[in-house]
Amino acid sequence: MKHLLLCVACLIAAAFVPARAADTPSGWQQTTAHELGERCHSADAAKHAACIGYVSAIYDLQFAQTPVRGVCPPANLNPDNLTAVVVAYIDTHDDGPAPAAIAQSIVRFFPCQTASESARQEAPRR
User: Fold this and answer.
1) Where are the domains of the chain?
2) Secondary structure of 27-64 in the HEC alphabet?
């Protein structure tokens, strides 16, 4: 009888515990680069503002506090310019997670220049 009660108790407990965490949907869907691009290109002011806010937040989290080696954004970078850079990247690359697309656009558009590269750009053209 004790074993029967124990088995029943285990079955009841098992009914309330998910089999695996992977089988339990969280409801969270990561934003894709394509979805972000749609918001950024939207004529709807609220969607466009959401785009700028999203891009700015990812930048703040990934780059603003601790600059990444080899990445040198200009001193006059603002949310609108940053978003334009991100959109240019998204428009020309495959879809994927939006945070990764933002990071890649920043790394590719704002590499640090060596002293010789800076001198070459400042030299007068003949």
Assistant:
1) 33-115
2) CCCCCEHHHHHHHHHCCCHHHHHHHHHHHHHHHHHHHH
pTM, whole model, 2 decimals?
Answer: 0.69
Tokens coding 65: 């506090």
Which of 49, 30, 29 minimizes the C-alpha distance to 39? 49
What is the CA 99 to chain-centroid distance, rounded?
A: 1
CA 42 to CA 7: how far, in whole Å? 58
Amino acid letter, 111 = P
Name the residue with higher pLDDT: 96 or 124.
96
pLDDT number for residue 82: 96
DSSP 71: B
Nearest Cα neighbor of 87 from 54, 125, 124, 46 is: 54
Q: Considering the domain delimited by 33-115, tell me its CATH architecture.
A: Orthogonal Bundle (1.10)
